[in-house]
Each structure stands twice: as C-alpha cells, then as structure tokens.
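Components:
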Amino acid sequence: MRADLALVGFGNVGRRFARLLDEQRERLHQQHDLDCRIVGIATRRHGLAYNAVGLDGPNAAAFVENGGIVSELSGSQTLPSGATSLDVVRGLSTSEAPLRVVVESTTLDIAAGQPAIDHVVAALSAGCDVITANKGPAAFAYQDLRHRARDAGLSFLFEGAVMDGVPVFNLTRETMPVVNVLSFRGVVNSTTNHILTALEDGEDFGPALARMQIAGIAEADPTLDVDGWDAAAKAAALANVLLDARITPHDVIREGVGPANATPAREAKARGMRLRLVVEGKRGQTPSVKLRTLPGGDLLAGLRGTANALVLTTDLLGEIAICQLGGGLTQTAYALLSDLVTVRRRRAAQPGEQLRRSP
Amino acid sequence: MRADLALVGFGNVGRRFARLLDEQRERLHQQHDLDCRIVGIATRRHGLAYNAVGLDGPNAAAFVENGGIVSELSGSQTLPSGATSLDVVRGLSTSEAPLRVVVESTTLDIAAGQPAIDHVVAALSAGCDVITANKGPAAFAYQDLRHRARDAGLSFLFEGAVMDGVPVFNLTRETMPVVNVLSFRGVVNSTTNHILTALEDGEDFGPALARMQIAGIAEADPTLDVDGWDAAAKAAALANVLLDARITPHDVIREGVGPANATPAREAKARGMRLRLVVEGKRGQTPSVKLRTLPGGDLLAGLRGTANALVLTTDLLGEIAICQLGGGLTQTAYALLSDLVTVRRRRAAQPGEQLRRSP
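Structure:
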C-alpha cells in the first residue's frame, strides 16, 4: 500500500527519519506492505519543497546538512511565494495514495505547544493521518486532537513524545487491553539524569550539561531540560493519555536541576541513596516533576546517565516498568516509523483490506 | 461478538481466569465487543464438563475449591464414559459462535511439553483459536505450532509463558514493528530470585523456598524452579520466538540454585554485587540459564524478591527492558485475557468486521 508523506519540520529528527525510511524500505514493504514516498518537506526558516511524484529524502537531508535550503532542493516544484507548511499539507491532501500522512517533527514550544498543534489540526482537517515526535500536541491539546481524529476516522499518534521510540502509548493501548493505569512515576529526561549522575560522582554541572548539548540530547534550548519543562510536558502527555486528564505542562508542579544540587546528590549517594528528577501522576491528582531522594534499590535510582524508565501501577497487572537503557536520534526517528506502521495497520483493519496475520 | 471457550486445565490459573472473565465482563463487552461463554471444562484427574449454552465459571471454580469434581458440576451435559479433553475441544468446534477459543492452562511438563502441545494441535485441527498459559508449546514446538496456526488462519498465543501478563511477545510483535531483536538477557524465575535475595540477606534456603510454595508462586514441583528448568523453558520460548531458534529447554545450558549459593550470594552483596540466575540468548547461539555475579548498577541486580525483568538488545531501539515488579495468579490469568483480546482483534481485522478505532 502506498503512503505519501509530508514532513513538517526537517531538523535532526526529521532528517534522521527521512534516512531511516530509506534504510528500512525493504522491511517496510515486506513486513508491512508499506511503500512510502516523501512528497513534501516544510521548514519554518529554510523554505518548502513539494513534488507530487516524490522527493529524495536522504538527498534532501544531506543537502540541508551541507548548508542548502529546502526551497532550493532539486526536484521540487516551484511553490507560490508566501506558501507555508499548511500549503504543503494541502498539497499532500490532493494525493491519491491510500495513505496520506503528515510527519510532524518541529521542536517543542513550551508556551502553548505551537505551531505543532496547528499542524496536527491542519493535517486532520485536510483528511491526512498525522504522527508527531513533538510532545506539544499531546501535552497541550490531547483530548481535543483525539476527538478531531476520531471524528475524521484518522490517526493522531505520538509514540516518541515520552521515551523516544520505546513503546509507552502503544504499550498500554496495544498490549495491555482491559487494564486500567492507576498512576505513573518515572525518570523521563535524559539530560537532567545525566547531570544528576555526574553530580553524584563529584563532577560539575556545566561540563555535564555541555556534554548533553554536544551529543545532541539536550533540547535546542537547554533550559527546557534543566528547568524541568521537558519532563513537565511528558508528565502532562502521560496524564492526559493514560489518566484521562485535561491539563497542560503549565499545570504540572515543577522543579528543575541546577548546580546547587551537587551537594545533595553527593550526600545521597554516600548514604546509598540517589537524587533523581522524578515525574509522578495519579488519577485525579495534579502531576509533578520533583527532585526525590530514592533508596538505592528503587528501579529509578539505578538509572544512570541517559537511561529512562516509566513505572506504571495498574489494576490487573500490578506494577510494571518499561526502560530505555540507551537512546539517541535513531530511537526518536524510529518512534515516527513505528507510528507510521500503526497507521498502516489501522488502515488494514478497515473493510476491503486484509490484515497480515502473524500467529 | 460472541466467543465460546473451552478451558483445558482448571488448576489455580484456569480457575482464576474463569473468575477474571466474569469480573471483567463489562469492560470486555464495552471496550472490545467481546462476550464470552465457557462451554467446556476439561481436567486430567477431576473429569470434564460441557454445556453448549454455557457453564458458570465462578461457580465451577468455587465448586472445585470446595472439593467437588468437574464432572459433577451442575449444568453439565452427560458425557460418554471415556470422554477426554479432546472430546471437549471437539464439542467446542461444533459451536456456531464466531470465535471458538481453547484456553489451555495445564502445568508444564519438562520432559516433552505434553499434553499441552497435543491440546494446541487438537484445537487448531478442530478449527479453534488456542491460547495457553503453559510454556511447553512455545518452548518445545513453537515453529511447528506457528505454521499450523498460520495455515489454518487461526491464532496460537502464549503471552503468559515468560512474565505472566506483562507483555513480552505482544511487546515485540505489536509495538516494535520493523525492529530486530538481537539478544536477550533477563531474570525470569520468581522463586529462585526470591531465594537468592533471601540468601544474600543471610536467610536459609529451605524457608525461602517454602515461602514461595506457600504463596503459590513456586511450580507444583519446585525442582522445576530450583534446578533452572522453568527458566530454561522460558529461555527456549524466547529464543524460538524472538530469535528464530528451533530448540527445546533440553538444549539450553542450565544451572540451578541451591543451599550452596548462600556464601557466594552473601559475598557478592558485601562487595556491592549481586548473584542472580540469568537467562541469556543471542541469535545463532545456544541460550543459557546461569548464575551470574552482576555489578550493583545492573538493572537485573536491582531486582529483589519476585521481581522479573527482560532486557532486549535491538537494532533500531538499542537496549530496552520490561519489568514485572509484582506478580501473582491474577497476572498469569490476565495473560490469557490479553491473548483472548488479541484473538478478537485479529478477527476484527478480517473482512466484514470493522476494528474499533482508538485515536
């Protein structure tokens, strides 16, 4: 089945996704009967490209990384001056491919989750499924976007919002039927966890943060990490999706990590404890992002460096945890690929298309 | 959609499943359009019961727990003398319900995985989907049973084989599309992990094992746990399913846990390490169950008591882990419920039936 894609956002994640799509072309075809074509690329500052018969994703990524701008990509049709990402979405909506998917990967805006939310709304209004690596839409507007998608018979997916490609939302939706999640707690921000483990080992705050920036793991604006905003956005998304909350990151009780945590982090370690930045949420209560001194035997205490984990307390399954022991750009881009397959599977489940069965 | 079920095996797991099905009747109907009826119960030593219009599951469980035998259940039709569990399966196959599911929960036979494998074959031959809480079929005969199920257009599912209801096979199959699992390592036997954590705390082997027997967590024959057979069966199932192996538990390199491990367990803990019974498997290599002295920071070292975890090394997602932090009979029975919903979802994906969409 053919899928035409428009990439809205073409930063690190978008470019890695374009390459991953190419690298996994054969498996996508063989295992999922999915043949993808990138027909549009939209960026905020580097222009737009569109070609109804397809653009070369890896070539576009290399072109941009070598200083080129998207609007000068060879193969792109000429777009009217003043065209925006919404025009690229509208272009996609004219495709006759059975799957038309907007792949949103702009960076998190912590004020209001924009323009990502507008991109999701535009995609759904234009009759396209939408998948996003951006936490904003689920953190600020999950219930509204979910209803829009349902009413349009389309998908709105965001597996990468919390732990890159490690399944969190697919885990609860696809593999824990009938189960109710009662609460969650987790370490979900790699930059601050790396800093805290460095501090407890006697290192300084500045170099530890710098390492995460150099590695491309810290957010473009690292205050989003160290002030706890990234974790708060994840807590809001988790509460909205798993606990039926209707909150934004601004509702989350929030603490961050700073140089002043060096002494408590070292002291905690000396006592066999660990200082960790922990997100917590419980049905009917306001979620929080707080520094917690945890016993050494706590699963979250054992997470070092960029490792993440989410512990879910449930009614039927007791307490379970899912952990990301190593992460990076490929994992984040993979989350989009995983969402794309979910879109394909759902379309297969509609009449006239037989789902491939795997016993 | 109506599902008629035959329970083959009616021990702790089967009885808990019968009750869970009743407790979750409303959620199964509302969330999954699934209305289940138990039409048959087959046991090896306590007789059979069958009624095409349905038996009362919770009542049957209570009856048996009060010393009654299945063949004397009120509501059962009279069965010919010499009837076996295979006759109950054949009875189910005459049902006109759109879903006919054999729910297998006999105990593990480590010699050859019987009679569970015969039950699976009989179910598939009779045109019924089959779900099992028994490790045997996946550990001894996965590839054969998988092909039989595929050829018949039916499901053969066993989510509970490794970590009770905590998703392992659903995790990889439903939430990690395109990903290749390269290797696994884990702590997957609760009884031996409880014993090892007791030993490292200075307790004795005997009482620690006795606690697991009283709690109903140890296998009916506890040598299956302490000699490493349960872990070996899980390692074989994991290797067969995740790594395309064609092995049985007898191929797995195997160690167990005994009183002699008390000193090494205490010494490891004194050095900040932990002694754990670890299953390991890698594509193309023979899996093993071995006592390993792990650094304190290892996720598996941190598992205390009955906690279990499985770490998967993958090509696209790096290293991820799924952990069961508390387990018991409800979790094991839930695995069957989860498989039942998978059967329902797959049937929904066939032409003529629309899958319920959740954005």
